[in-house]
Design goal:
The chain has ten helices and no strands. It is an all-alpha fold. Helix 3 packs antiparallel against helix 8. The longest helix is centred in the first third of the chain and has 17 residues.
Length: about 180
């Protein structure tokens, strides 16, 4: 499976659930769909998923997740990016390029109003669970590698600094910090 086919899988899952904003349901449906693929393809899907996780491992996005969720540990950032992947390719790429654009998303606005965190750990287990379902076996230990890039030192500041967050992520700060 390549990146394009992975995104097609996510889009198919989003199209088959009653509420495509329900990231956990999207992840469960994607797992079911992927489980119908050959085992080798499921294994390669795991690497594609972790490549997307690596691609989205940036300080600006981490800062945005911190604002949106009222804090964000390293695990929390993984789960936030899982939620972001479940939103589909267009959203993933748009938000990756401009994390402050999260403020324009209805799901983010609703979460802000309701005090709900945006995360989806289930996305991180799509290939793992699909492989178990399809083969009855665990995903091979060497199925993927994680290659996190270095973080941008220009964003190495205290994310609790409201003034700095308001300067760097003005729309999200207005939505969540005021």
């Amino acid at each position: 499976m390549n990146t394009q086919r992975f995104w097609q899988l996510i889009e198919a899952a989003r199209n088959q659930v009653p509420d495509p904003n329900d990231a956990e349901e999207v992840a469960r449906r994607a797992t079911s769909l992927l489980a119908t693929h050959p085992a080798e393809e499921i294994v390669t899907a795991q690497q594609v998923l972790w490549n997307l996780m690596a691609d989205s491992y940036t300080n600006p996005l981490w800062a945005a997740a911190y604002v949106v969720n009222g804090g964000c540990s390293d695990d929390g950032f993984d789960y936030f990016r899982g939620w972001l992947i479940a939103q589909g390719r267009e959203v993933f790429e748009r938000i990756g390029a401009d994390p402050d654009a999260l403020a324009d998303m209805p799901a983010v606005r609703a979460a802000a109003a309701d005090g709900i965190d945006l995360n989806c750990e289930e996305t991180l287990t799509i290939a793992w669970n699909a492989h178990t379902t399809a083969t009855g076996k665990r995903l091979p230990d060497d199925a993927f590698t994680i290659r996190y890039p270095n973080l941008d030192l220009a964003w190495d500041f205290n994310f609790d600094d409201r003034d700095e967050m308001s300067r760097r992520l003005p729309r999200l700060a207005a939505l969540h910090l005021e």
